[in-house]
Write a structure and sequence with these properties.
The chain is an alpha+beta fold. It contains 2 helices and 5 strands.
């Protein structure tokens, strides 16, 4: 039986999507959001620890990712030049793979939510 654990974090950042929209569109200008990210990891608990994964390890990963995004201009981050919700999900997945390759295969879901807009995107790796 597989279990799923989740860790969430919040970051605030600015971006623009002018490359995607016509002149005058509200997303064409620089604006900001508070984003909430949830990472989900599936797996069986380790027989010795009883954990799918130590949340302290996941917290360290999350803090590093958050530091790269919080109060930043997303368009200037390598890989987020066009920072749609979909691309933010993919970028975060790539960071998990890069920083914790042994945990990455257990990543079952990345959700990025913009509460003020009531919008979100969920990425589920194949």
């Amino acid at each position: 039986m597989a279990f799923e654990i989740r860790k969430s974090f919040i970051f605030d950042a600015a971006h623009h999507l002018g490359m995607n929209v016509d002149a005058g569109h509200r997303y064409g200008e620089i604006h900001g959001h508070s984003f909430e990210v949830t990472l989900a990891f599936r797996g069986d608990p380790d027989p010795k620890t009883g954990w799918v994964r130590d949340f302290a390890e996941i917290d360290a990963l999350v803090q590093d990712i958050r530091a790269r995004l919080d109060h930043k201009y997303l368009n200037k981050i390598d890989g987020l030049e066009q920072p749609t919700l979909e691309r933010i999900c993919t970028w975060i997945r790539g960071e998990v793979q890069r920083k914790m390759p042994d945990l990455a295969p257990n990543l079952s879901e990345v959700t990025v939510h913009r509460g003020s807009c009531r919008e979100s995107c969920t990425y589920r790796p194949d």
